[in-house]
Predict the structure of Peptidase S54 rhomboid domain-containing protein.
Amino acid sequence: MRNNNLGEVAGQVPLCTLAFATLCIILQGCVFVFNTNIGNYVLIPSRIIYLGEYYRVITGALLHGGLMHIVFNMMSFLSIGSSLEVAFGTLSLLFTILWSMILAGVVHCGAEWVMTVWVTHDPTYVNQPSVGFSGVIFTLALMESYRSTQPTRSVFGMMRVPTRMYPWVLLVLLSVFMRDISFVGHLSGILVGVMHVYGLTKPLMPSPAFYIEMESYWWVRDSIGLRHNFVPYPPPALPTTADEQEQPGPSIRDSWQSCCDSIGACRRSLGNVAARFGASSAHGQNANGRNSNTAGSVGADSRGETETRGRLLPWGV
């Protein structure tokens, strides 16, 4: 019974999204079963640039660092990938993901090389390993945010930010509150998403005529084209309202304004968290037997220290 339910759920996921998720899970299972050293396959900029181990760009994206890593990544990918595949078509999303893996890896390596050679002269950056599908997920997340008709989106239920800046805010929060996260890897994915949105990758992508012709080939039509979760190109038109049809394309000025608004929202949210910690500290000292004047002074000092720390932090809490 459970197998039937699992099959029904998997059958509802569009084909390309399901295929990449299955591939990542199978590869991770092989790593676990055969006790494979993934250090030979993760993305390491120095080995790609100087030793020509270009396969690491692909294998580094498809492999993951552990069970929780792949679970969270695949949950996010199944949601975002399914949404985009319904909008773009199966073959279109396939080429989008393939190019996103390559471009995110190139941007990642380039950024780490610049940090090592031109900025810090510290080889740690170019030798830093990275693994996971997160770069592609952030690419797709940014593309999906530009297609969304909702003006704002909730971030962990703490605050609402402009939808188009949701991936940027998520990048900052994950980097602040979680350890061992590849900031450059996630940022590279977002930058590739920006390239997709503004048409900079259009010369690399197949034309609409290519997708239509490819779907007409018998080996595509008979093997995957008849599957119910295959989304043809162009996809069936989704119902839209008049407001959605008149919605203008992405504007760099609007995006910059949204970025500033999102940074301000992050500042206020993190500032509130810091203030609560300060208030809790003052309350605890009051409970230990200090008089009210002393407790008030400590509370004021705590808030002042919090504000001073906030001004010194690079993200301006």
Notes: The longest helix spans residues 252-287. The chain has two domains: 11-236, 265-312.
